[in-house]
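FIELD: query
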Amino acid sequence: MIQLRVGLVAAMAVACLLMIAACGGDSGGTTPSPSPAPTPTPTPTPTPTPTPTPTPTPTPTPTPTPTPTPTPTPGGGTTITITASGVSPKTLTVPAGTRVTFINNDSRVHDMNSDPHPEHTDCPEINQAGFMTPGQTKLTGNLNTRRTCGFHDHNLPDNQSLQGSIVIQ
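FIELD: result
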């Protein structure tokens, strides 16, 4: 029986040693070897973004404004001026194809139109001058037909100082 006990103790001792060996430990009191320290991951250096080269914007070439060809006029001009005293000149003679300029130098509005009132049908080209605020300048259409055209202020059709005529030759 002693033999049995010795064998049992020896078997237990072997079992204990196997367990200690399986656990990685030993009774020598040594410390386990450290795991390798992690290697720091290098931070990537940012790649500079290239600055785009600006594409030049083409500068538009201005279109020249056509200059109207002046029309020679008998009697010294193609302008009728409106003042508080009325229109001047009262009669203007121009060659066919001319445009007449109305200038409102009065402190009130005027609405210059062709005769007769209120139809304004004798010379519709005059109706293009129409409504004018103080200081405003307007042109008639081209007066192409040879004739005499009466005009007046539509708002004051009976005021003779604001009536006149354009003779187209």
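FIELD: remark
The two ends are 160 Å apart (CA to CA).
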